Amino acid sequence: MPDIEPKQIPSADGGDAHAPDPEVLPRAKRRQYTAQYKLRILEEVERCTERGQIGALLRREGLYSSHLSKWRRQRAEGQLQALSPQKRGRKAQEVGVEELTRLQRENERLRARLEQAEMIIDVQKKLSRLLGLPVENPEIEETR
């Protein structure tokens, strides 16, 4: 299979230019900003006095105006702790020590009951064999 070379496209100045690579780039990672960076940008925005300076700042940094409004709200709520990146996803539910011990006791109690029930079933099976009683469907009883 021959190697694929980029096409030579004549440019306006007379030279040859390469066509852009058609390779699909990997999915972009979510950007995360440090608290110091957020504060620095907010301070720069507050120093902007002329029309269009904030837009130029946003374009230069690759930000959106929604970033500014969100960061301002976070700053008002509690400065650095609100501005530091938050862990995404569902919050882990903490199980209390009392709850854990209660569940462990219940688990042990249920295990003991299961073991007792299995012994009773085994005895019933042996008794039915000794008495010569037919077991209707042994496969079903084994899975119960």
Verbal overview:
The protein has 5 helices and 2 strands, in the order ββααααα. It has helices spanning 35-47, 53-61, 65-83, 97-131, 138-143; strands at residues 8-10, 16-18. The longest helix has 35 residues, at 97-131. The two termini are 61 Å apart.
Task: Give the distance, in angstroms, between the N- and C-terminal Cα atoms.
Answer: 61 Å
| Elements, N to C (H/E) | EEHHHHH
The overall pLDDT, averaged over residues, is: 79
**Category from helices, strands and their pairing:** mainly alpha
Strand count, sense and barrel status of the largest sheet are: 2 strands, antiparallel
| Helical run tally | 5
Radius of gyration: 35 Å
Give a count of the beta strands, DSSP E runs of length 2 or more.
2
The proportion of residues in beta strands is under 5%
- Order of strands across the widest beta sheet? 1-2
Low-confidence stretches: none
Helix fraction by DSSP (H/I, runs of at least 4): 55-70%
Primary descriptors:
144 residues, mainly alpha, elongated
Short description:
This protein has 144 residues and is mainly α. It has helices spanning 35-47, 53-61, 65-83, 97-131, 138-143; strands at 8-10, 16-18.
Helix-strand blueprint:
Layout: E1 8-10, E2 16-18, H1 35-47, H2 53-61, H3 65-83, H4 97-131, H5 138-143
Antiparallel strand pairs: 1-2
